[in-house]
UniProtKB/TrEMBL annotation, chain A:
UniProt keywords, alphabetically: Coiled coil, Metal-binding, Transferase, Ubl conjugation pathway, Zinc, Zinc-finger
Chain segments annotated as coiled-coil in the UniProt record: 135-169
Species the sequence originates in: Cinara cedri
GO molecular function: ubiquitin protein ligase activity; zinc ion binding
Superkingdom of this protein's organism: Eukaryota
UniProt cross-references to SMART domains, sorted A to Z: RING (SM00184)
Protein name as it appears in the record: E3 ubiquitin-protein ligase NRDP1
PANTHER family xref list: RECEPTOR-ASSOCIATED FACTOR, PUTATIVE-RELATED, TNF RECEPTOR ASSOCIATED FACTOR
TrEMBL record, chain B:
Start and end residues of each UBA domain: 161-199
Keywords: ATP-binding, Nucleotide-binding, Transferase, Ubl conjugation pathway
Top-level class of the enzyme under EC nomenclature: transferase
Molecular function terms from GO: ATP binding; ubiquitin conjugating enzyme activity
Protein name: E2 ubiquitin-conjugating enzyme
Record-annotated active site: C92
EC number of this enzyme: 2.3.2.23
Provenance organism: Cinara cedri
Length: 315, 199
């Protein structure tokens, strides 16, 4: 809704009034063909009821509304308006274009949030300060928080209960699997298949990576770095049964003979480019999995895969 | 009432007061109470019509949702017109219904009503009896409308013949308004009006 015309200093031209609210245009838009201008709020409200221009009834819909010409905006911005907190004592008369800035910091705005000075520190609108009671408000706050805590505790009890159930089921299942393995050797092959599938699925979900600087390899990462990589692997959905072994394989002491020392690495450098690498999401590190690298010789590969961490140079 | 409706009505009220039509005594608006939700309108019967010389009062109710919805307007003064109910004063005018537009004002509504009085739309009637008479017996219609203007809106043209027929019915114990309505509906045929009133 537009600004009440009585708030303006000096003459206000009829042309800059909204035909709907008869106030001075606020946030104006115009109809496409007839170019009649309205406050955005007013015309949207009208178009909910009828898809016509309120002045000449030409067909208009919301999507056809256009911004008004710059010249009209400039005319509006040049007007001087009395602050809406005038009744609360604000004497300021500002140009329309800085009205919003002024209102945001107008000391007389009764709704301006203000911290309570009596000690509770809660931030409340200025006009509510006189009826404000620290003890009462804080009590309500405590009450609400207590409710939240109770809910969370209840949730926790439920989760614990569910967890116990799941653990028990897991124990029984493990027992079954163990028993099956003992009396039927082919079961081992089945589980191996499942695990391999799982690795392949994970691998195909990872983005391919290219190493531009093999020299930046960190072959002896510290625990912190290793942990960091482990977290990233977990988040990327790394199958649990290879997670720990894979993380161990980011250190040169677990690397195969072809990579285990600086000399052998220098020697085998030309083979590096044959590796098909996958990116550890968000890290300067790559995963080299046997399933992606069937052609690579055994002395350049380790089970269940290699992780190489770099200082830089991963694309 | 919300701000936008109040702001509009206040301005429109001023607009009518300042208008040249008011100066010519052809339209007028007054407040009823101090809430701006109800107003009393006044239009003069247009010249060269049976309504000439009459003053017609209107009840104007401004809805909460004004100006997104039209004001509710009704004739308080009884009038004989195809698009206005002779019983309730309800008006059949497109701009007061689906053809309302938010930029219309009290002034334009009153002027539209005045135009409607000058140019009836008998094919879109509010009062079927009046519309039928308008189409079939235009002379009787004009006389009847003129007579109603005289009786209810202070118009100048007295019709001695009609008055005496009404008086005959009053003498039989019929209320004046009922007598006038019945005679008007039966094209001033005293016998048929009587029959209808006593049946």
């Amino acid at each position: 809704m537009g600004f009440d015309i009585v708030r303006f200093v000096g003459e206000v031209d009829e042309e800059i009034l909204c035909p709907i609210c008869t106030g001075v245009l606020q946030d104006p838009v115009q109809a496409p063909v007839c170019e009649h201008a309205f406050c955005k709020g007013c015309i949207l409200e009208w178009l909910l009821r009828q898809s016509t221009c309120p002045v000449d009834r030409l067909s208009v819909n919301v999507l056809q509304l256009r911004p008004v010409p710059r010249i009209l905006k400039n005319l509006l911005n040049r007007l001087y308006i009395i602050c809406e907190n005038n009744t609360y004592g604000c004497q300021r008369v500002v140009k329309l274009d800085i009205l919003d800035n002024h209102l945001a910091e107008c000391e007389f705005n009764p709704k301006r949030p203000f911290p309570c000075e009596q000690g509770c520190g809660l931030i409340i609108p200025k006009d509510e300060h006189k009826d404000h009671n620290c003890v009462k408000e804080l009590r309500e706050l405590v009450h609400k928080q207590q409710q939240k805590i109770n809910e969370m505790q209840q949730d926790m009890v439920n989760y614990r209960y569910e967890m116990t159930g799941i653990k028990e089921e897991m124990r029984v299942l493990k027992g079954y699997v163990r028993a099956l393995r003992v009396c039927n050797p082919s079961v081992r092959a089945v589980t191996d298949d499942i695990e391999r599938d799982e690795i392949e699925r994970w691998s195909s979900s990872l983005p391919e990576a290219r190493v531009t600087r093999w020299g930046g390899m960190i072959s002896t990462p510290d625990d912190y770095l290793q942990n960091n990589i482990k977290q990233a692997l977990i988040e990327s959905g790394c199958p649990a049964h290879i997670l720990d072994d894979l993380v161990k394989n980011c250190h040169e002491r677990n690397w195969p003979s072809g990579l285990s020392s600086l000399e052998t690495r220098q020697h085998n450098r030309r083979h590096y480019d044959r590796y098909i690498c996958k990116r550890v999401p968000g890290k300067q590190a790559v995963i080299v999995l046997p399933c992606d690298n069937i052609m690579v010789s055994d002395d350049m590969m380790a089970e269940p895969g290699l992780i190489m961490i770099f200082a830089h140079g991963i694309e | 009432m919300n701000n936008i409706a109040t702001q509009r009505i206040k301005r429109e009220f001023k607009e009518v007061i300042k208008s040249e039509e008011l100066a010519k005594c052809s339209i007028k608006v007054d407040l009823v109470g101090d809430s701006y939700t109800e107003l009393k309108g006044e239009v003069a019967g247009p010249p060269d019509t049976p309504y000439e010389g009459g003053t017609f009062f209107l009840e104007i109710k401004v809805p909460e949702t004004y100006p997104f919805n039209p004001p509710k307007v009704r004739f308080m003064t009884k009038i004989w017109h195809p698009n206005i109910s002779s019983v309730t004063g309800a008006i059949c005018l497109d701009i007061l219904k689906d053809q309302w537009a938010a930029a219309m004002t009290l002034r334009t509504v009153l002027l539209s009503l005045q135009a409607l009085m000058a140019a009836a739309e008998p094919d879109d009637p509010q009062d079927a009896v009046v519309a039928k008479q308008y189409k079939e017996f235009p002379e009787i219609f004009a006389k009847t409308a003129s007579h109603w203007t005289n009786v209810y809106a202070g118009g100048p043209k007295k019709n001695i013949e009609f008055d005496s027929k009404i008086q005959r019915l009053i003498d039989m114990g019929i209320e004046r308004d009922h007598a006038c309505a019945a005679l008007s509906s039966y094209n001033w045929d005293l016998e048929r009006a009587t029959e209808q009133l006593f049946s």
